[in-house]
Amino acid sequence: MEFENGQSIYNQIADNLSDKIINEEFKPGEKIPSVRELAAEVGVNPNTIMRTYTELQSKGIIENKRGIGYFVQSEAPLRILEERKRNFFERILPQFIKEASQLGISPEELKKHLNL
């Protein structure tokens, strides 16, 4: 996994796992890799993965079944999509509109490129 600057590694790993859940690589109720397995796979310290899993647990995306491992929650895909939509409308869209305005792009020009 390639990491980018500007966002913490544990958040990038959480986003990657969330992508896999949305794309049904990990389905609700399915076991995900252990902390050690994922740490070895992505080449990070197990503490980083533990932080990732703690964050995903707090959002209700995964759950820990003690002694068995971590599993995808039944509502995980919906929760991920809701959070990403909220992020889009609160952060990405306002920045997009600001940028378009600064560039002098008209609503008509935007509409043409958005295929609406």
Automatic annotation (TrEMBL):
Matching entries from Gene3D superfamilies are given as:
1.10.287.100, Winged helix-like DNA-binding domain superfamily/Winged helix DNA-binding domain
Q: Which residues form the HTH gntR-type domain?
A: 7-75
Q: Which domain of life is it from?
A: Bacteria
Query: Can you provide one Gene Ontology molecular function annotated for this UniProt record?
Result: DNA-binding transcription factor activity
Protein name as annotated: Transcriptional regulator, gntr family protein
Task: Enumerate the PROSITE patterns for this protein.
Answer: HTH_GNTR (PS50949)
Keyword line: DNA-binding, Transcription, Transcription regulation
Note the CDD domains from the entry. WHTH_GntR
